[in-house]
Amino acid sequence: MKALMCAAVLLPILSGAALPLFRFKKRLHREIYVETAVLLTSAVVLALLLRRPEGTLRIFRLTSTLEIALRLDGLAGVFAGLVAFLWPLASLYAFEYIKHEGGDDRFFACYTMTYGVTLGIAQSANLITLYLFYELLTLVTLPLVMHTGDRRSVRAGFKYLGYSIGGAACAFLGIMVLYACGDPALTFVYGGFISPDTPRRTLVLAAYLMTFFGFGVKAAVFPFHSWLPSAGVAPTPVTALLHAVAVVKAGAFAVMRVTFYCFGSAVLYGTWAQYAAMAFAAFTIVFGSSMALREQHLKRRLAYSTVSNLSYILFGVSLMTPAGLVGALSHMVYHGVMKITLFFCAGAIMYKTHREFVPELTGLGRYMPVTFTAFTVASAALVGIPLLPGFISKWNLATAALAEGGLFPVLGVAALLISAMLTAAYLFTPVVNAFFPPENRGRHGLEQAQDPNWLMKLPFFVLMAAMLALGVGSRGLLALLSRVAAGQL
What we know:
This protein is mainly alpha-helical. The protein has helices at 2-22, 27-50, 74-97, 104-123, 127-145, 151-181, 201-216, 227-230, 236-245, 247-263, 265-268, 272-294, 298-319, 322-353, 369-383, 389-404, 407-435, 454-472, 475-485; strands at residues 57-61, 67-70. It has a two-stranded antiparallel ribbon with strand order 1-2.
């Protein structure tokens, strides 16, 4: 079973790299090739989750202490399971959307390779392996951000690259401190490998903030967030990938790893480093929601929403308790499903109507009922309506914070409440206008608008079913997440 961990990483990477060599003459043949590779990879991940292998798969040594190695613990399983569920749907959606973009071979090569790199991040057994795949993620997603090749996409790509390299450099400084003050192998251990009695406590706390903000760049924490809305110029399958599945979740996942599996809450809890991380997360929650409310471009509005919701996850991590980690993990999973649905809907609207701004959506609900039903369900879930998954994760985060008490956790709860109200405003406004336009408005020029074909609609139905299932039947998942957060898996 250990070999399957390596197969899960290599299968999509090699399949994507080999795709241009086949020179497919028919689009259908390329689509079958890509979806087969993706589905096989997800099947491998499922087999690993059902029969999780024990121990570590060591691939090769870099030095006498550092090695590239894979391991599937509970935290890795949560992230890998989320990615394995969403990626086949994203690929299916992309087949139809990318038809009018061109450069199909290059796009799907990078798109498929990104799947393997993300699974490498999930399964990393130590910090050096995670860092390697983290850097590869930047390189393999850069062509996707710049896919259209126009001035805006090139500028957005360089901005994404600059922020990512800067963040990685900052994180690397923190890693060097961990190497010097903790375990030279940098192996992930629940509870961390830094002694609470370390004589270099100030240096260690400063190193934690380096890694928090360094990896937090991909998680779009303020003030390192602006690359994310700029990357919205990429094709919608890419922005869905960036905002819901791979890149931003990799940043949040890396922060979880360094907090609970490197530094350890015993070292960080109650320190100025914890309060600084919590304060920035709480501020970003409100800031992102406020910017989303002001933004009229639909994809950029959703991008700022992602900025806010990623810091929900970081806020849960910064509580540095098992309950906080449960809240963070549940929001990581639920947000992935909710936000990819919203981006898919935005992409369908742009694909069928070429309308990009919120005021232009007036009256579209009548002509694109499936698309806007999915948008409505995902919006209600993200706002936190009961019986939908967003309510559960926000409840977990709020109760974990209130259980801690103190100024910063309470301010975090206030940020969650403010963000919920702002989220309702920026998501329900386009929903109401789409389904209930003012009289004599919203019909001109919409006669040709319609829902996309089944390649784009099928993911809508699957994701809506997933949101309903997660909302009313999440007890088993939350029990699993509680075991992960307690270090039992």
